[in-house]
Amino acid sequence: MERKVSSERFRSFYSILGLLLVGTVASLLAKIIYGVESVGRDGRLRPFRKPLFEVFSMFFGMSLCRVLEWLRPAASAIAVAESSSETVVADPLDQVLQRLPWPWHGFFAKAHRWLSAIAPAATHIILIPATLDAAATMLMCTGLLFAPVSVYQMLRGSMLVFCAIFSVTLLGRRLHAYNVLGVLMALGGISAVGLASVAGEHDLEARGALVLGIMLMIAGQAMQALQVVAEEHLLQNLLLPPMRVVSYEGIYGIGLCMSVIFPLAYILPGADYGNRWEDTVDSLVMIVHSRALMLILLTDAVSMLLFNMFSMNVTQLSSALFRTMLETLRTFLVWIIDLWIYYRWSEGRFGEAWTPYSWLQVVGFLIVVAGTWVYGMHPVAIGPQVIETADLASVPPEHVHKSDSGVHLKHESNQRILDGDQVNYRTLDTTTEWISCTCC
């Protein structure tokens, strides 16, 4: 018994430490990579300002979660049992495609048949949230071009506001007074963060770019909230382990990047090489000419794999309040290291400067954290059901299934919950796990 307790403590320690370290490194690298210089197609040295390729790297990291699942015998056993279940017999994407007008129905139906040859039909519905995920990550990574990484981290709390709006308008939820209070607190905190960032920038051109970056990030969080709502509505009957859902989103995201996003970016006008939105060939040339870029992109992809692994362990071993505090600590770690990089390591080339308005940014972020916690303190009613947002202890007994493998939520309690910038995904008879669907 003592050995088991000691093992659990060690698992908790390395999971928490790993989550903090991996998440912090991934967030910092997402910004630093834009300042790394390499030789492109034109033979000139210039910075790697390629947000779409970074999106591809993150989807690649998500797809690696399939490897992690293969290394987890318990998850593999669940996957085998669920894949053989007679419950999943129809392809839910067919129902969506049938509603499309001609000629879109024919075009997407052909693509659907091609997809059926490489992935289980029942998982094709994941294409919809994967598309929303790609749009959200593109907006966030593009916004990061113009804004500091600390603002990037803090504005993730805005997803709470959009989740509340979409859950009411699209899912018919009823918010209680404390939910509304949490949303209002988050709005106030986000406004303070944005105001402090803009006020601290004195150059008018840089200030305009910063405002654009903030708007893109908030739009990205709105898109990610729509993804959360779509997954809750479309994937609630998909009997797959959460890590496999993440891996399929990564695989489908890679397909979207290669078949839609990269070709469109090559055709559309923009500020990249050749006056394109983003030249993928130029991106590859720059990567080949820079070991630093190779290392950063590889680290970014591996961090997505490790982040999901540590997130699963922390979710299983901690409460919602602790996870919120952990995300708060991670954001402050990112900010502190970013300040150190600016003043001590790069001499102003990378990182973020401290301004007289930075204290307002701190206060705004703390208000966002408090609003997130207030919003998630109590259940939110959905018609006759109750969606729980705390620990298993708060779930009614009739919604809990106990077995030799542990305590699990039954199908009626399937849900997705916002915890900071993470999303909890509870599947049929599986333990609660985090899904990190976008950049760390």
From TrEMBL:
<keyword id="KW-0472">Membrane</keyword>
<protein>
    <submittedName>
        <fullName>Uncharacterized protein</fullName>
    </submittedName>
</protein>
<feature type="transmembrane region" description="Helical">
    <location>
        <begin position="250"/>
        <end position="268"/>
    </location>
</feature>
<feature type="transmembrane region" description="Helical">
    <location>
        <begin position="153"/>
        <end position="171"/>
    </location>
</feature>
<feature type="transmembrane region" description="Helical">
    <location>
        <begin position="288"/>
        <end position="307"/>
    </location>
</feature>
<feature type="transmembrane region" description="Helical">
    <location>
        <begin position="328"/>
        <end position="345"/>
    </location>
</feature>
<feature type="transmembrane region" description="Helical">
    <location>
        <begin position="12"/>
        <end position="33"/>
    </location>
</feature>
<dbReference type="InterPro" id="IPR037185">
    <property type="entry name" value="EmrE-like"/>
</dbReference>
<keyword id="KW-0812">Transmembrane</keyword>
<dbReference type="GO" id="GO:0016020">
    <property type="term" value="C:membrane"/>
</dbReference>
<keyword id="KW-1133">Transmembrane helix</keyword>
<feature type="transmembrane region" description="Helical">
    <location>
        <begin position="210"/>
        <end position="229"/>
    </location>
</feature>
<dbReference type="Pfam" id="PF16913">
    <property type="entry name" value="PUNUT"/>
</dbReference>
<feature type="transmembrane region" description="Helical">
    <location>
        <begin position="178"/>
        <end position="198"/>
    </location>
</feature>
<feature type="transmembrane region" description="Helical">
    <location>
        <begin position="357"/>
        <end position="375"/>
    </location>
</feature>
